[in-house]
Every structure is written in structure tokens, then in C-alpha cells.
Request: fold
Amino acid sequence: MSNTNSKPIECSLRLMELLEWIEGEVLADIGCDHAYVACNAVILGKVKKSYACDIAQGPLDRAIETIQECQLEEKVIPILMNGMEKLPEDVDIVTIAGMGAMTILEIFDKAPLKTGLRLLLSPHKDAQKLREHLKEYSIEILREKMVYDEGHYYPVLDCIVKEDVATLSLQETFLGRNVVYNVVYSQFLNYEKNKLSKILANMPEGKGQELRSKLDIIKNTH
Ligand SMILES: C[S@@+](CC[C@H](N)C(=O)[O-])C[C@H]1O[C@@H](n2cnc3c(N)ncnc32)[C@H](O)[C@@H]1O
Reply:
């Protein structure tokens, strides 16, 4: 149910798919830029309040403009900060989208990751690297989905901070954990299979072991 009188702001399919999985009381969108996620999460009634956070003043100014246009000054609070360094205590769900895995991991280095915190992560590159390192931060992937938007595939990882994080299998590290198996994911697997087959066709035998095992796993999954 909607939380305001505003209509949702038009935004990309990628961000709408991220919004679909937001569920909590108070959201912090890290690297918010335009603040579409922080505002829409409130407008769509996904959370009661949100923080639109960015490291740079330019994007934060864009966020403030959107907040004012939607008249959400009471419910969406802009914060200038690096990553999650000054994350307010009342946040129970965090979104990070449109950044590479290495930037996301650097953010976790200085983040107050309290048990029970939900995280929705949508890296624009190196998802495998992100999965490989999440356990070091006590972050477990609960489920994933693949989004196809404007010619690119974007994974969305729904995660939680907890003790005793499950160790990922090789298949989960390569291709995701508990992924929603739909047409988009099936097309993604096909795309990966073709890409890897082409790369390996030009590689001498005995080289590219990781890519070969990834290709074998895709062939057995698909
Ligand atoms: C490509 S934009 C993505 C915007 C939006 N999240 C999306 O997915 O459309 C990346 C944004 O992250 C911000 N950013 C980069 N590193 C950051 C950090 N360490 N902490 C907070 N924001 C950061 C940038 O200033 C920029 O506004």
C-alpha cells in the first residue's frame, strides 16, 4: 500500500526489480544519485522512511531535487557519506546498486554490519567476486534474481547479516544462490554459455581451468 499521495517516479526496470524486493521499516540507499529508489520505496509503501546516501555533493543535490519534487522531505532524508560509515541506527534494510563489486566490498570494510540487517545488492559488474567475499563480512545470500535491462544483465542479491553463514558451492559462486529460475535467467545462462564457449575455443588446452569448470556447470544446469 502507498505511503504518500505521490505517484511512483518513473525509473528503469533494473531499479523497479530492486524495489520489488525491498521489505522493511527504514531503508538506506547507498550511492543513491537521483534518489529514485529511496523515494519510490516510500511512495510504494515498501518502507516508512528512507535515507538517500551518496559520497558526492552533485548526486546528493539531484537526490534533494527529487525529494522536494515528491514532497517527501519528512520521510526521505539525504545524507552525504562514504558508503555506510555513518549509517543511522534505525536502518533495517540497505540497497546498493549500480556499483562494481570491488566498490561494494570496500564499503563493507567500514560498515556497521549488525546481525539481522538486510542488504539488496545489485552490482553492475563482478558479481562472482562479490559472492566469493560476502561470507567474510557475515553476509549470507538468501535468494537472487537476474534482471535484463537496456541490453545488460544485472543480478539482484537479497542478503542478510548473520552468524554461521553458509559456504557457497562452486555453482552458487559462479551463477548465484537460490536464483529465481525464469526466462531471463535461462537467457542469461545461454548468453554465458555462448560467451565462455567462444573464449575457450581460442584458448590452448590446459589453460582457463576456472572458465572450463564454469562452462561445465552451466551445461549441467541448463
Ligand atoms: C552509477 S551511480 C548508481 C546510482 C543508483 N544507485 C542506480 O543504481 O541507478 C553510482 C553512485 O554511487 C555513488 N558512490 C560511489 N561510491 C560511493 C561510496 N563509497 N559511498 C557512497 N556513494 C558512492 C556515486 O557518487 C554515484 O552517485
Q: What stands out?
A: The longest helix spans residues 183-201. The chain has a mean pLDDT of 96.
